[in-house]
Amino acid sequence: MRTGRSSFRHALSLGRRFFFAAAVARLGVATSGLAVFWAVQGSSGSFGTAGVATGAFAVADALAGPQVARLVDRHGQRRVMPAVTALFAAAGLLLIVACSFAWPGMSAVVLSAVVGATVPPAGALSAARWRKVAPGDADGVLARALSMEGAVNDVVFLAGPVLVTTLGTVLAPWAGLVLAVSLLVAGMAVLLSDRASEPPPAGSSPGALMDRRLLNRRFAGLFAANLALGFFFGGIGVAITAFAFAHQAGALSGLITAAAGVVSLFAGLAYGAVAPGRPAPVMLVAGVVLTAGCAVLALTPSVPLMFAGYAVVGGCVALVLIPGSILLQQATVAEVYTQAMTWINSASALGIATSAPVVGFVVQHHGWPAGFLVLAALTACLPAAIAVLPTTAGLTQEAEAFPVVSGRGP
Fold first, then answer.
1. How many CB atoms are closer than 10 A to CB 117?
2. Residues 284 and 394 in one domain
3. Alpha carbon of 16 to those of 132, 194, 197, 222, 283: distances in Å?
4. Which residues belong to any copy of the Major facilitator superfamily (MFS) profile domain (predicted)?
5. 410 lies in a domain?
């Protein structure tokens, strides 16, 4: 344990300034989607309008994020992100005004889409800087840094919904959106001021919608794995909520999910402290546990057992995400890493958007156990994708062997 703590301190000594700034910005990211929902619902009084606005936010984020990241890789973080952050802040403030003065619902939907399209990819920017300050990763700094990034993700996505819900209830429906915009702008300002850790711009990005250097089998496999992980993320909340209501414990559904998040946080830190040299087997085992665990949870007879069972299953999430991040580092050259991260996030978002309504439909018509079984079937794509990941081919050979489909671009 002492060795692990010393290793984390060493990693922090290399990236303390941008890491904590990015953590603040990521809390803003974690609150932004739900904050949009609360703001629009409070203004319109319609859950339908709020759902459309939140969907517009998520789709715009998934589509625009990789293109913003591509500009970052090509021109540098300090040349691109100030303008993107300013657009995000302006759109967020306009959405707050629209919700405060009850502008027509379509205005809120359009502004929500603009907010989503300009959300700064704080996690990708931070991860790219770790790659700059720890080149080669001879002493395992990147593994520990990425485990800290995973721990931050767990913390902000646990705390974010609580903050938005509390502010929206106590102050005003749009108060959570004020918090999200403030955190993102403040965190990005500090992160971008750290010039020493900024990766150099690549200067070119061949390909139309995606840089051709991302077209290798390892990246395609990781994209598929994160799509499958998105299936899990999208369906598990629906299934657990349905279970809780069926057992007259609806108020506990959030706590069941939070308990698993805490376990995932510590599992990720433990993984980073050990920093094993072969992340793919760890990722594969965790993916199998997620898949089998969803099927076993369909048999859960009581709420206490669901707490314990999902703590084990959900605790494996970090053991997929962190090794996957390490493999992504290995599968991509530094010049395209930021956009690689955002494409991975878009894959997860697509999985969430697909799984949530499917599991919801199954639960509605066949009950919560069937929801868990369908979720297990969807999540089975995760270990399948990991199992076929190439592990030995070099990046150049992989890129050459993978058929180029994006065409040539500037």
1. 22
2. yes
3. 14, 10, 10, 28, 27
4. 175-410
5. no
